[in-house]
User: Fold this.
Amino acid sequence: MLDSQAQRFQAVSAGVLALTGGVLTVTGSLLQQRAQIPRGDPTGVLHHIAGHPWFAAALVSVVGTLCWAVAFPAIGRTLRDPVGRTAARMAEPVLAVAAAVFAVTYALDGFTSGMIARQWISGERGTDALTDIRVVEGVVGGTSTLSQALLGLALSAYALAILRSGRYSRVLSWAGVAATLGWFVGGSALFLQLPGASFLLLLPFTTLATIWTMGLGIALLRHNRHSAPGAESTS
Assistant:
């Protein structure tokens, strides 16, 4: 059992990291403007990458996901319901793998694609850059869709555990379940290359899930600000 001061630190840290992870994830997406990438046009892809802070955006996105990878296991340990707490613990390895795949994907896309685009624009590389960016796009596409499915799966397990605990508002809890399950289903459809599956269809769910994580972080901070130290019960 954690003492009251450690419990409070864990809950507050989880809230800060959940909120920070959401902010960083949104920031990374805004910096990259991935929806505007002209897929299938290697020259257009290179110009798009060169015209955005690609390296910084990739790093911001990775750090944001790592914040979630630390926050959600901590959130799971603050749940009072034993079944919900156990379910959250079972989701920890899935979230760890999802975060690792996501980090590798964005490191490859951020650094490798960024370097190819920089060398293309500067004239250091010729038409071979067009071939290389196609290869990178293919690799990144596969690992990216896998990371989306795994992130959706892990976060949906946490959302269901949080819903069962009854600690947060029903609206917030159900919004998290709907968003994360949609994220998982959409990511799986993308990975399986099902007809009609696209990142545009996935976007509403990932957006709502990101807002949910930020709302969850705010709820945790508010709860701990208004409750006495040691009010949380964890194991």
Summary: Residues 55 and 115 are 9 Å apart (CA to CA). Confidence is low (pLDDT under 50) at residues 228-235.
